[in-house]
Amino acid sequence: MPSTTTGGGRHQFIDGSYRDGSGEEAVRINPATGDAAETIRYAGTGDVDSAVAAAKRAFPAWSKATPAERSSAILKLAAELERRAAELAAVETAQTGKSLRMSTNFDVPGTVDNAAFFAGAARHLQGLAAGEYGAGGTSMIRREAIGVVGSISPWNYPLQMAAWKILPAIAAGNTIVLKPSELTPGTSLLFAEAAKAAGIPDGVVNIVTGTGRGIAEHLVTHPDVAMSSFTGSTAVGRRIMELASRSGKRVHLELGGKAPFLVFDDADLEAAAHGAVAGAVINGGQDCTAATRAYVQAPLFEAFTARVAELMDQVRVGDPLDPETDLGSLISHAHRDRVAGFVERARGYGAKVLAGGFAPDGGLAGGAFYRPTLVTNAAQDSEIVQEEIFGPVLAALPFESDDEGLALANNTAYGLAASAWTRDLQRSLRAAEELQAGCVWINEHIPIVSEMPHGGYKASGFGKDMSAYSFEEYTNIKHVMLGRDTSAHKEWQDTVFAWPR
What we know:
Blueprint: E1 12-14, E2 17-19, E3 25-29, E4 36-41, H1 45-64, H2 67-83, H3 85-96, H4 100-121, E5 131-134, E6 137-145, E7 148-152, H5 158-171, E8 175-179, H6 186-197, E9 205-207, H7 212-221, E10 227-231, H8 234-245, E11 250-254, E12 259-263, H9 269-281, E13 291-297, H10 298-313, H11 333-348, E14 352-355, E15 373-376, H12 383-386, E16 393-399, H13 402-410, E17 414-415, E18 417-421, H14 425-434, E19 439-442, E20 457-458, E21 461-462, H15 471-474, E22 475-483
């Protein structure tokens, strides 16, 4: 990593300045090489207390800033992030192993755009217009910031997930303590540094680096944290709900996914095949909206799987810094082995691997690389079809009728994203209605935009990231009623005790 995030005292950002953690030391490994990259001293619970205290001190002034003032600061943050784009991309690739091409052209621009969006959205925190909804009174809605938000972000998109947590929270007038994954803290720290450079007051954005058991649970249960927002696995999300329930704390969860990729028999085969490979391989498949289950109507199944296998074999896996690389490494050797385990167990129960299914050797043997993989002949109830793998693995299954295809697509615990591929308007409308997911693409898979919400159904969590809808998570809605009837006697009071008295 560049010097901005290495060395002593550079892994916690609290109250506007870097400091060292008080917890244990750990070595971060470069996943693309297997080499030690840096030593991190994690935060301890005392560091979390300091960060929460700083956020609490900053809250009154920041929450009372006008929307225009918050908007101006966030717009400057967008410009600062854009100015640091090359550094952000380099750090993102160094800590995740993803290709520099993706960090440069996907992660960083998406984050800058998200900041620009929330700069505008900060000035549009709206409720119902004032009006007379009941006799004798005028009602209006106030949207008010909640307080200190304690957020936990994952390792797959460290920069973008930091932005998704921080931006709507501070645009709505909250302050935040973010715990990024201990595997990938670098760009979250740079984000906080950019916020300070943009003039966002000290204490509004704080970063604490450490493990889940070490500090995340302390952050979730902290009495001065008014809300917990988490992106990650469903199992951990349930644990956070359990902890937050003890004090009735608000919770926002974006959890796992197992996105179906539904191909009807009238689909454009070439478009669907390319969409499946891009949707399955993006970010090494380490994306909870990645295409993981391709359901293909029987007449197209053989042609579709043959073309997908051919395209997967053409994906260039290699050095993340090489501009020709399509797919870098996975996040760690342990995770690579977990992904490989799913494929090997599927082979054991009779599934066929038509592409990939192995870790490359030679010059890539030291890194956490895994070839894009297509699996067929797996049962609907098998783990490779039902469980989140979080790797570049696509399982393809045939179906006969439209009813069967939609039923199979919905036959999972998750509901974050889905796509349907067809040239038929009625099929498109039916799929949009019946697919149980927070995002449904038609003849596309993966693209997201700042103006539209992201969030799931079922075991994929609840609440929305991005868009104006995210303000529903980060604001309290207050009804204020102004009594216009100045008489002592109000007619409704007769239901309690009758006048005159």
